[in-house]
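Subject: Sanity check before I submit

Could someone independently write out the structure tokens for this chain? I want to compare against mine line by line before I put it in a report. The sequence has 119 residues.
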Amino acid sequence: MSITAGTVLLVDDEELVRASTADMLVELGYTVVEEISAEEALRLLEDGLVPDVVVTDHLMPGMTGTEFARELHRRLPGTGVLIISGYADVEGVAPDLPRLVKPFRQAELAASLAALGKS
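---
Independent answer below. Compare away.
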């Protein structure tokens, strides 16, 4: 019996980070849709994708993860967003957005996602 935890839209411009994070999410029971930029992710939303949660890198070419989260909340209010960043004190990450610092373990990712559902 397969239980799906939901659909995650995963956005990260670094292929290795995106692939390893996707693997962790799949092991946690999520269906994962991967994209390399916020702009491409927004196109998926325009095409009808409605993710249960979004995991996005912060520092990406073009739109930052924080900017993407704000746009996502305008389009899909109530969708949980987790910002992942390799920098503990990144300028521009809004303090009201949940954040997980890279590198992270699967258990930390799972706990961060679980916390999104409670906020």
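---
OP: Matches mine. For the report I'm noting this point. The chain is about 40% helix and 20% strand.
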